[in-house]
Amino acid sequence: MNTYRTFMSKYIFYFFNGRGRAEVSRLIFAIAGQQYDDIRYEEYEGIKLPQSLAIARFLAKQFNLAGRDYFEQAKVDAVADTINDLLRKFLRLRFEKDKSKKQELMKKFFDE
């Protein structure tokens, strides 16, 4: 299962300066006990492996956290996708400027 491990001995994680979608990958590094350089930037400068969920899935496989069989892998994917769904809804709520709409979104977010 650890087929990618030999390709990288030092990890450099480039992401925008902030939390959010990158936290899943940072959690994988922490759970795996893997040291890495966490380089944050304010603008998009081009990265070699784009998309936060693709990075998270890559790291989960890299550190044997992706599941032992196809069913476990699907469950791990479901967790990552659920986090992404929640984050998307939260960010919509977070950046809503209209106060009444924000209250409506907040109620919906916590009730569902």
Question: How would you portray this structure in words?
Answer:
With 112 residues, the chain is mainly alpha-helical. It has one domain: Glutathione S-transferase Yfyf (Class Pi), Chain A, domain 2. It is 53% helix and 11% strand. The chain has 4 helices and 2 strands, in the order βαβααα. It has a two-stranded parallel sheet. The N terminus is likely disordered.
User: Major sheet: order of its strands?
Assistant: 1-2
Largest β-sheet summary: 2 strands, parallel
Mean pLDDT: 80
The CATH topology comes to Glutathione S-transferase Yfyf (Class Pi), Chain A, domain 2
Q: Work out the number of β strands.
A: 2
Q: Helix amount, in percent?
A: 40-55%
CATH architecture grouping: Up-down Bundle
- Secondary-structure class: mainly alpha
Shape: flat
Count of helical segments? 4
Tell me the radius of gyration.
Answer: 16 Å
Q: Topology as H/E string?
A: EHEHHH
Low-confidence stretches: 1-7
